[in-house]
Design a protein that fits this description.
alpha/beta, TIM Barrel, five-stranded parallel β-sheet, three-stranded parallel β-sheet, 10 helices, 37% helix, 14% strand
Length: 317
């Protein structure tokens, strides 16, 4: 996938940059799930997105599940977003692994329905991964990444099943004209640079690539791979990118590790260098601004401004 042409037509003004939905509650003040909320609630949400200068949003199925909306509600969602000049850029199916014990086949069917819904909505990317629902310890932790969660087994048959089911989804996505992106996430077959790249190569479909969300790994309170090396290995396969950053500190003897969410500019990962390298390698996918804690929407807006400053300008010599 590294032979893709550099996107000379994209620049800091035209590159698709979406905002995550972390800044919105999954439930309205009167107890209605955002997924089932009336049009005025969705209208307020998209109004707030537009007010911060965003022209795109990723639909996270933790908040709104396109596959489980009626056709009329999907059309309503699209119309309300359009009224605020906000594009529905991607849908992200999270914690619904196709190899989750006891639910893999059900999750696979749900992902297929989501691909169809994404095509109907005219989205640019179908995004998913292999991470599973939070463990009890993660649900109780201040930051979920500081507690142990589910781990994909070191088992050739289970990995082969993951490859087969993800290839099945990739073929479906290709049939409706969508790229499929797989998010890197700890303790899954997408949890290290080498394993993630191997998984993409095993799936072996031109429309299936990586979401090199290495922020998911930098934040871990344990030893990690060098973030520069992880990017160098994975960026040639990237087709969508969740970008976020963390400050990180650790002792020289490995006795302690700590991390805290940061802006893109101030965290451990040097996104000025990594974005430049990605474009050099042919990256043309949308970016997704993601942030945990505090004013998520506000930090995402700050991060968008920073990202635009490191993207190519329209006038190039």
């Amino acid at each position: 996938m590294s032979d893709r042409p550099v996107a000379e037509q994209l620049d800091r003004e035209t590159w698709p940059i979406a905002v995550c939905m972390h800044g919105f509650s999954r439930v309205t003040p009167n107890g209605v799930a955002l997924h089932d909320a009336p049009p005025e609630v969705w209208d307020d949400m998209f109004g707030r997105i537009a007010a911060l200068g965003f022209r795109g949003v990723e639909l996270a199925d933790s908040h709104i599940r396109p596959a489980d909306l009626t056709a009329s509600r999907r059309e309503e969602l699209k119309e309300i977003a359009s009224a605020h000049s906000v594009d529905l850029v991607a849908v992200h199916v999270q914690r619904q692994s196709v190899i989750q014990p006891g639910r893999g086949e059900e999750n696979l069917a749900y992902a297929h329905r989501t691909i169809d819904a994404a095509a109907e909505l005219g989205l640019q990317v179908f995004s998913t991964g292999l991470h599973q629902p939070f463990s009890a310890a993660q649900q109780q932790a201040l930051w979920f990444w500081t507690a142990p969660g589910p781990v994909d087994p070191d088992d050739a048959a289970t990995r082969a099943l993951a490859v087969a089911r993800l290839r099945e989804l990739g073929e479906h996505a290709a049939a409706v004209g969508l790229p499929m992106s797989l998010e890197m996430y700890e303790d899954t077959y997408l949890g290290t640079a080498d394993s993630a790249v191997r998984l993409i190569e095993e799936i072996d479909l031109v429309n299936v690539g990586l979401n090199p969300d290495i922020g998911n790994l930098v934040r871990l309170h344990r030893p990690i791979e060098d973030w520069r090396e992880m990017h160098e290995k994975t960026l040639p396969y990237a087709n969508y990118w969740h970008v976020k950053n963390y400050t990180r500190d650790e002792s020289a003897d490995g006795s302690w590790y700590t991390s805290t969410p940061s802006t893109l500019e101030t965290g451990l990962i040097n996104y000025r260098d990594m974005v430049s390298r990605a474009i050099e390698l042919g990256f043309t996918g949308p970016f997704l601004m993601e942030q945990y804690g505090g004013d998520s929407l506000g930090v995402c807006a700050t991060n968008r401004t920073y990202l635009q400053s490191v993207l190519p300008s329209a006038a190039r010599d």
